[in-house]
Amino acid sequence: MKRIILALTSLSAFSLAALAGNEKAKPDNTATNQRDRSGETKTSGDQSNSPADLKTTQAIRQALMKDGELSTTAKNIKVITAKGHVTLRGPVKSAQEKAKIDQLAKSAAGAAKIENQLEVQRSN
Questions:
Q1: Which SS3 state, helix, strand or coil, does residue 80 take?
Q2: Nearest C-alpha neighbor of 61 from the set 105, 93, 102, 94
Q3: What is the largest CA-CA distance in the chain?
Q4: 85-92, strands of its sheet edge to edge
Q5: Are 79 and 86 contacting, i.e. CB atoms less than 8 angstroms apart?
Q6: Cα 77 from Cα 63, distance rounded (Å)
Q7: First to last CA, the chain
Q8: Distance CA 3, CA 26 (A)
Q9: What is the pTM (predicted TM-score) of this model?
Q10: In principle, which of 48, 105, 106, 113 could form an S-S bond with 82, CB 3.0–4.6 Å?
């Protein structure tokens, strides 16, 4: 009985060590988080609750969701509208996605001014 318990314990420890060795390093978002807390950039908390601004944000978000060519990453960008001014923020996979989102936002936003702060992700 002691041998079985010892064998199972050893096997469990070996399995955990193997899993820990395969774990990738997590990305460091410290600089992004500091930038967002500084108040110099727009965050979702800056979204206006005026009916016109909410309608603009909704129209852009719907246009992004309808586009089957955009990646999930691109569809999850921040769309922040305040006083008729739209800010697009977040990562996208390519320059083509960045341009496509800009085009969709301009079409959906009507007269609203678009500020494209999207960042193209670096390939690993």
A1: strand
A2: 105
A3: 77
A4: 78-82, 85-92, 113-120
A5: yes
A6: 13
A7: 49
A8: 38
A9: 0.68
A10: 48
